[in-house]
Automatic annotation (TrEMBL):
Membrane-topology annotation of the record: Single-pass type I membrane protein
Intracellular or extracellular location(s): Membrane
Name of protein: Protein kinase domain-containing protein
Biological processes annotated in GO: cell surface receptor signaling pathway
Cited SUPFAM superfamilies: Protein kinase-like (PK-like)
Gene3D superfamilies membership: Phosphorylase Kinase, domain 1, Transferase(Phosphotransferase) domain 1
Length: 365
């Protein structure tokens, strides 16, 4: 009986392990594992280490212990972990199995694996051995821009930090639009997707909805996707996605930085959303009514210039908006002028004239 019990237990364990292995293989194939293996074999800068095992991630998170949770929402949970390579990572684990979310996951892996920029979150790998894939990115310690702007404290990020964050976000988007082999439209630019590290350096994240756009076409006709309040109204009404859709969303982020108001829920006394109210008070010369008091205290003449830039970015007609490259150059010149002024005896009037001159030059270019 003892021998029978030992043999039976051994057989049962073997059968369970075999079934578990088959399930992982099935999930791997279901989650397009072969497609990703082909991808990593063709890209010199991507190694097979990016395909991580479930055991590795279970060990990194102490079997996905609740104490390792960083946060989550309706779509899933994010865990903090440490890989055997000693990289501290954020592991995204979806809660439910929806084919669209699996497709977005694969899309994010493919895009992040092919881009490398200081202001874009870095992909460490992925796990395809579970029913719902797991995405492993670098851990960004300081939360999101949204959290910093919309906490309950009277004082938020300094104006200097906000301007630098705007510059770095513009750099990341201009890189995606202009400096990769096949341009990429992010399609969900918003403050919750702008992560900040310990030095408040921008790390743009969440590329699940992003799309490649070949250089020989002007856009894509797609199902509308994005976040209310940041969503390009032209794209919403036509379903035609272009790089100017990201420009619009970035313009909303600029307004958010200037006003410290939430684009999703803001309503003026007249019932206007944030973009319409901002554009109205700017055109009426009453900008101070909507600006964050901290921006009024800490900012100078550049606040008006950035407000004008934001207003151009959120024009209804996409053709009336600048490209992200022009937006980046404009912000860079404004930021450089302020840095120069702070280290010299430049007068406020001459600094204002310099900023406006540079902005007009970049816009005309």
């Amino acid at each position: 009986m003892l021998l029978f019990l030992v043999l039976g237990t051994t057989f049962l364990i073997h059968r369970i392990m075999t079934r578990k292995k088959r399930m992982r293989q099935r999930f791997f194939m279901q989650n397009h594992g072969q497609l990703l293996l082909k991808l990593v074999s063709q890209m010199a800068d991507i190694s097979e280490r990016m395909i991580l095992t479930l055991e590795e991630l279970e060990k990194a998170t102490n079997n996905f212990d609740k104490t390792r949770e960083l946060g989550g929402g309706g779509h899933g949970t994010v865990y903090k972990g440490m890989l055997s390579s000693l990289h501290v990572v954020a592991i995204k684990k979806a809660k439910i199995v929806i084919q669209r979310e699996i497709d977005e996951f694969i899309n994010e892996v493919v895009i992040l694996s092919q881009i490398n920029h200081r202001n874009i979150v870095k992909l460490h790998g992925c796990c395809l051995e579970t029913e719902v894939p797991l995405l492993v990115c670098q851990f960004i310690s300081n939360g999101t821009l949204y959290n910093h702007l919309h906490d309950e404290a009277l004082v938020s990020l300094s104006w200097k930090d906000r301007l630098r964050i705007a510059v770095e976000t513009a750099r990341a988007l201009a890189y995606l639009h202009s400096l990769v082999s096949v341009p990429i439209i992010h399609r969900d630019v918003k403050s919750p997707n702008i992560l900040l590290d310990d030095n408040f350096t921008v790390k743009l994240s969440d590329f699940g909805a992003s799309r490649y756009v070949p250089t020989d076409v002007t856009g894509l006709d797609t199902s509308v996707q994005g976040t209310f309040g940041y969503l390009d109204p032209m794209y919403h009404s036509t379903g035609h996605l272009t790089d100017k859709s990201d420009v619009y969303s970035f313009g909303v982020v600029l307004i958010e930085l200037l006003t410290r108001k939430k684009p999703v829920s803001y309503r003026s006394c007249q019932g206007y959303g944030l973009v319409n109210h901002f554009s109205t008070v700017l055109s009426e010369g009453n900008l101070f009514h909507i600006l964050d008091p901290q921006v009024l205290r800490e900012g100078g003449g550049e606040v008006v210039d950035i407000s004008l830039l934001a207003a151009i970015c959120v024009k209804f007609e996409s053709n009336d908006r600048p490209t992200m490259r022009v937006v980046e150059m404009t912000l860079e010149s404004i930021h450089a002028a302020i840095e120069y002024a702070s280290s010299d005896d430049m007068t406020d009037e001459s600094m204002d004239n310099y900023i406006r001159g540079e902005m007009m030059n970049d816009m005309s270019a």
